[in-house]
């Protein structure tokens, strides 16, 4: 198993698409931190841009894994592994671990870009270190969860071009749907209704009215679970959890532990499903 993983890992490192995505994510980190620095008149805090990369990891995983695993099929590598005696579970797990490791490295490339700009321009973190650390761990688990989902799709589809399209569509659907859910959950229960103003335009009487877009009760509880369960939902929350003044969402100090559990659940379910179906798949 170790030799199989090592060979798969080194094949992954030889893929140009991996290095392109890695460099692009590093550049994006430099760009995000530089933007924060340029908008600050004095010292700046990088809290608000540390996790901007997470929502894009679904697309990154879709592009890389569909191309990498697709080439394993088109080059006959998977068939050759079976011929030499490797089990289907070993082949699946080797690809899963290599792809997950690649997604983690690409994620860390963004963080490296942030750190480089932070050190060169004197930035700082306003949020507590342990909170940032837990959120960083959660973001890496989100990347692994995305990798697990896309690996399952890629291992079950031998058509390289078709798998790229399906994986990217799924990544976009997850991103858009989670963005919509997060937006709806963010609607306030009440909103201010200015009923009168004085001669200089300053409100003198304010009444609160119920927000018709606010979701309450069981539907809200269901949407909150879905938002936490989906990797894209966690990604949206992480990207919006911090701002230039530190922690923007006070719940962020406790929810990463819950997110870790949900990410592990997604990884186990998708990996288990993928292994079972891959064992039944006919490979020519």
Structural write-up:
The protein has 284 residues and is mainly α. The protein contains ten helices and four strands, in the order αααααααββααββα. The strands form two sheets. The chain has a two-stranded antiparallel ribbon with strand order 1-2. It is globular. The chain starts with a helix and ends with a helix.
Give the helix level as a range of percent.
55-70%
Please, what is the average pLDDT?
86
> What is the CA-based Rg, rounded?
22 Å
Low-confidence stretches: none
Summarize the structure.
It contains 10 helices and 4 strands. The protein is mainly α and 284 residues long.
Task: Provide key terms for this protein.
single chain, two-stranded antiparallel sheet, 10 helices, 7% strand
Strand and helix layout:
Blueprint: H1 2-13, H2 16-39, H3 57-74, H4 77-83, H5 88-121, H6 129-155, H7 160-185, E1 190-197, E2 203-210, H8 217-229, H9 231-239, E3 242-243, E4 246-247, H10 255-280
Antiparallel strand pairs: 1-2, 3-4
Helix pairs in contact: 1-5, 2-5, 3-5, 3-6, 3-7, 5-6, 5-10, 6-9, 6-10, 7-8, 7-9, 8-9
């Amino acid at each position: 198993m170790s030799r199989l993983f090592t060979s798969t890992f080194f094949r992954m490192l030889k893929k140009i698409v991996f290095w392109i995505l890695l460099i692009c994510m590093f550049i994006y980190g430099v760009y995000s931190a530089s933007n924060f620095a340029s908008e600050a008149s004095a010292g700046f805090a990088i809290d608000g841009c540390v996790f901007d990369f997470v929502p894009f990891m679904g697309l990154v995983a879709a592009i890389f894994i569909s191309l990498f695993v697709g080439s394993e099929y088109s080059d006959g590598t998977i068939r050759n592994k079976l011929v030499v005696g490797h089990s289907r579970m070993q082949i699946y797990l080797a690809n899963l671990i290599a792809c997950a490791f690649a997604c983690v490295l690409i994620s860390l490339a963004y963080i490296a870009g942030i750190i480089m700009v932070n050190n060169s321009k004197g930035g700082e973190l306003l949020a507590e270190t342990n909170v940032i650390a837990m959120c960083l761990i959660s973001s890496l688990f989100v990347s692994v969860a995305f990798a697990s989902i896309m690996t399952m799709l890629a291992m079950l589809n031998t058509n390289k071009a078709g798998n790229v399209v399906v994986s990217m569509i799924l990544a976009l659907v997850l991103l858009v749907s989670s963005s919509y859910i997060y937006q709806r959950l963010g609607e306030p229960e009440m909103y201010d209704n200015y009923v009168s103003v004085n001669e200089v335009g300053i409100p003198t009487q304010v009444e609160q009215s119920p927000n018709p877009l606010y979701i309450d009760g069981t539907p809200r509880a269901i949407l909150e679970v879905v938002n936490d369960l989906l990797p894209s939902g966690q990604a949206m929350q992480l990207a919006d959890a911090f701002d230039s003044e530190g922690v923007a969402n006070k719940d962020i100090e406790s929810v990463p532990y819950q997110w870790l559990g949900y990410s592990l659940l997604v990884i186990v379910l998708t990996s288990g499903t993928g292994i079972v179906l891959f064992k039944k798949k006919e490979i020519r």
